[in-house]
Design a protein that fits this description.
The protein is α/β, with parallel strands linked by helices. It has two domains: about 1-65, 2-Layer Sandwich (Alpha-Beta Plaits); about 85-335, Aldolase class I (TIM Barrel, Alpha-Beta Barrel). Helices cover about 35% and strands about 20% of the residues. The protein has eleven helices and 15 strands. The strands form three sheets. Strands 7, 8, 9, 10, 11, 12, 13, 14 and 15 form a nine-stranded parallel sheet that branches. Bound molecules: phosphoenolpyruvate and manganese (II) ion.
């Protein structure tokens, strides 16, 4: 349930409500809105709790949250949330471009590609060091060495970095290097991993599972939020359908549905959906037109040599062209580019 405070409620009144929620064995989560403060009380609640909280000073009313995803819902937090990745916002009025190779292959390669991406409008650098591959014989990533390279190049170019973490046991190690964790599609319902990245408080890019519903995506986000980490960015990256012309089907409807249900930012990953570079641009633009807060795209300057996902990698100049088009679609929607 949520405790909706009166518009002029004092800090002392808010603190008292938070204290009482704790005493009732519930976990308080505070959401400061433009006009009033809302306090979520999550946990095993009893009917009497509502009346106890309603009787407190400064409380306007107490209402149950109807959605199963409580903290991710707009009932709990009406305004759009903005996630700050080391100074780069995702989810505000601007559109954010995250780009880089699928995998970190070596240092010169990452430096070349990252420099090219930055020059063409990318503001956050991506690169996988731990790769979830369908085949155990495929390149699995450079591991910690890859993270070191990513950190080095990110620092040189002053770009925050995002990289995937595959297991709960590796969160501490990966967290020493990255500015934002990526939880991949194959791990969207790895609840131990979600709790662990939740505990770090660091931004998390949560990708939708390829066979997961939008509601399941929001429930996974809830796992991270329930640990007190508000920095969750959703990502639609394509789902399995009967269509074989694309690697996955980018579910554009996920964007407006998630926006309607949740205050969390959402971006699209057209690269893994498309599987082919000529489809990446149109899908990215469709996502932006549908209301996404940005894109994450794979880029390689020598895609034929790429150790992972070469066919879907944009060439650097294709990213430049796409960034221009995103800016135009964004302008039509009253949105600017995050620089
Ligand atoms: C990736 O971003 O390289 C990746 C493996 O993505 P996904 O989890 O969406 O397949
Ligand atoms: Mn990839």
């Amino acid at each position: 349930m949520i405790v909706i405070m009166q518009p002029g409620a004092s800090e002392a009144q808010i603190d008292h409500v938070i204290e009482r929620i704790g005493q009732l064995g519930l976990t308080p989560h505070v959401s400061k809105g433009q006009f009033r403060t809302v306090i979520g009380a999550v946990g095993d609640k009893q009917p009497a709790h509502q009346h106890i909280l309603e009787s407190l000073e400064g409380v306007d009313r107490v209402v149950p949250i109807m959605r199963p995803f409580k903290l991710a819902s707009r009932e709990f937090h009406a305004d759009n949330s903005v996630v700050n990745v080391c100074g780069v916002p995702i989810g505000g009025p601007g559109l954010t471009i995250i780009a880089g190779p699928c995998a970190v292959e070596d240092e010169p390669m990452l430096r070349r590609i990252a420099t090219a991406c930055k020059a063409r409008g990318a503001v956050i650098l991506r690169g996988g060091a731990y790769k979830p591959r369908t085949s155990p014989y495929d390149f699995q990533g450079l591991g910690q060495d890859g993270l070191k390279i990513l950190r080095q190049v990110g620092d040189e170019l002053r770009m925050p970095i995002v990289s995937e973490v595959l297991s709960a046991g590796e969160v501490e190690l990966v967290g020493k290097y990255v500015d934002m964790f990526q939880v991949g599609a194959r791990n969207m319902q790895n609840f131990y991993l979600l709790k662990e990245v939740g505990d770090t408080g660091k931004p998390v890019l949560l990708k939708r599972g390829m066979a997961a519903s939008i509601r399941e995506l929001l429930m996974s986000a809830e796992y991270i939020l329930a640990r007190g980490n508000r920095n969750v960015v959703l990502c639609e990256r394509g789902i399995k359908t009967f269509e074989t012309e694309v690697r996955f089907t980018l579910d554009v409807s996920c964007v407006p549905v998630a926006k309607h249900e949740s205050h969390l930012p959402i971006i699209v990953d057209p690269s893994h959906a498309a599987g082919k570079r000529h489809l990446v641009g149109p899908l990215a633009l469709a996502g932006i037109a549908a209301g996404a807060d940005g894109v994450i795209v794979e880029v390689h300057d020598r895609p034929e040599e790429a150790l992972c996902d070469g066919p879907q990698a944009l060439l650097p100049d294709m990213l430049g062209e796409l960034a221009d088009q995103i800016a135009k679609v964004g302008a039509a929607l009253g949105r600017s580019m995050v620089k």
